[in-house]
Structures are given as C-alpha cells and as structure tokens.
C-alpha cells in the first residue's frame, strides 16, 4: 500500500486487550446510521464516496478499562456515559477536507454515545476527531446526539503517548474523554492544568481562524500596488499576530512549539 502507514488506534490509546475489538462496519450499516437507506440521501451518498472501510476497534467500558461510568442529573435529563466507542475510518483520498469534516460530524451526531474517531487512508495523514456531545433530548428514541463542540487534529502533532488513557484523567469516562479533547486541542501541551476541554477547543478554533486571516492579509499585502494599501495590510497583520500570540499563550504551554 502506498502513502501513509495505517494508524493503530488501540495502540495509540493504550487500550488493554479486553477493550479491543475488530468489528467491521459495512457501508450499508454506516449509511443507515448517518443518513438512511442505500444511496437515498446526500448523507448516505457521502458515505459511499468518502469511506473505503470502517471498523470498531475498541469499546471503553468500566469493565474493559477499569474507569467508572458517569451519570449527572441536572434537571434536564442529565448526561449518562457508560461506554465510549473507538472507530477507525479509512477514507478515499480524493474526498475534500470539507466533506471529510462533514462525514465526521455526521458520525458524531448519529450515535447516542461519545466516540473517538481515527481517520486515515492512502496518501492521507492520520487524524483524530473528537466531539463533546450529549444525547438529543428531542429524539424520542434517544439514538442521536447533539454536538456541543468538535475538533479534528493531525495525530502526528501529538507527542508519543499523549493519547494513552493510562496517562489521562481516569476519574470517570466523561473526565477521560474531556481530557482527550483537551490534549488534542492543545497538541499535548496545555497552557495550564486549569484549561478545560471546552475552552481549549474554542481557543484552538480561534487560533486556526486567526492564522487563516493572517495568511490572507499577508498575501494581499504582497499584491498591493500602492504603498498606502501595503501599510494598511501590514498594520492589520501586526494586530493579527498580537492576537495569535495572546490565543497561543492561553492554549499552549510556554515551552510548546505549536
């Protein structure tokens, strides 16, 4: 096989043997999960175009990873977490980044549980997708989720062992998942122990947006035909760099090179 080597999700998470699976998800099942019958919806057609293969490679339960379940009653139905699924999706490299992200969010919304998704494929870098979700209260069957925050990051930017659940918060399954989200958002180098998962995701998305804006402004400055225009663009770029530095300081540890 050409391209990047296939990821080892169970190994990256440090899953014990009893938590590991090798359960193939057929395209038909995945289509039905995210969008109804075969080829009948845009969602199921996206599955056909994007997915080469899908597999459940692990299930994190109290009895498989020795981490307690979580139950919170807050007067609105609460959140109950008794298991976390780990999926490995092998993708068609011709699918666009926007469609890959759409597929990820469809899978996250279509499951009534937290899910850890690993993505790769021929000539594709490995990625990790996580989402803070809760089971939809408007779904009578309670078989779908609402995504509160989602993040997808390259696995290569995470330090070795950063995702190992033996080194993450093992208070309960919700604490573990939130810690994984926090580590993913910060490239394994959180600014402080007080930085929470929600804030880490918010800062990460803000940083990505600011960097994209800075790239655009820098290109415009190079193309500007008048000195006045260049001054305006360069002033804007300076402001953006200051904002990026502020966000980085809130997201990453000072020793991080992210």
Multimeric state of these chains? single chain
Shape designation: globular
Biggest sheet layout: 6 strands, mixed
Order of helices and strands: HEHHEHEEEHEEEHHH
Proportion of beta-strand residues: 15-25%
SS content category: alpha+beta
Indicate the radius of gyration in whole angstroms.
Answer: 20 Å
- State the share of residues found in helices, binned by percent: 40-55%
How many structural domains in the coordinates?
A: 2
Count the E strands. Answer: 8
Mean pLDDT: 91
Task: Tell me about this structure.
This protein is α+β, with helices and mostly antiparallel strands and 258 residues long. It folds into 2 domains: 180 residues, no CATH class; 49 residues. Helices cover 41% and strands 23% of the residues. It is built from 8 helices and 8 strands, in the order αβααβαβββαβββααα. Strands 1-2-5-6-7-8 form a 6-stranded mixed β-sheet, sandwiched between helices. A two-stranded antiparallel sheet has the order 3-4. Helix 6 runs parallel beside helix 7 and helix 7 packs antiparallel against helix 8. The longest helix is centred in the C-terminal third of the chain and has 27 residues. It holds the Pfam family DUF4391. InterPro entries: DUF4391. Keywords: Coiled coil.
